[in-house]
Design goal:
- The chain is an alpha+beta fold.
- The chain has one domain.
- The chain is built from four helices and six strands; from the N terminus they run H-H-E-E-E-E-E-E-H-H.
- A hairpin with a 2-residue loop joins strand 5 and strand 6.
- The termini are close together.
Length: about 130
């Protein structure tokens, strides 16, 4: 599968995280690993001053400022004119807050929420990625 990724993306993200002063850095690192574990085709980079994840297009970007101080924005890429069809992403735990037809966010309040959402979040991401490949 063709991807945007190369080995330098991981090095850039690791350097970014090494220099990051964030109250929830451990959670950021944990969330990053949960996302990367979804599929070996996932690459990463820094977008909007935060870790961002892609296959053929960017599909998820962390938001590290605001309340709560850690969110994951799932989207269809910057240039997408698509929408996720209603019901196309099963979300039995109601993790997604829809921000528009092509994007949603997941809030992480604390370490327990990052751990508890691990499985359901990965299931959502697998479904979401099917719309960007």
């Amino acid at each position: 599968m063709a991807t945007l990724s190369d080995k330098t993306g991981t090095a850039v993200v690791e350097a970014y995280l090494a220099a990051l002063d964030h109250p929830r850095l451990a959670n950021v690192r944990m969330l990053r690993q949960h996302i990367l574990d979804v599929d070996p085709a996932i690459g990463e980079s820094i977008k909007w001053n935060a870790p961002s994840f892609h296959t053929t297009e960017h599909f998820a970007t962390m938001r590290l400022a605001g309340k709560p101080p850690l969110q994951l924005i799932v989207h269809l890429g910057a240039k997408s004119k698509q929408a996720i069809p209603a019901g196309a992403v099963a979300d039995p735990e109601h993790l997604l807050k829809w921000l528009g037809p092509d994007r949603a966010c997941v809030d992480f309040k604390d370490t327990d929420s990052v751990n508890a959402m691990h499985g359901p979040l990965q299931a959502i991401l697998r479904q979401w990625m099917a719309h960007v490949r």
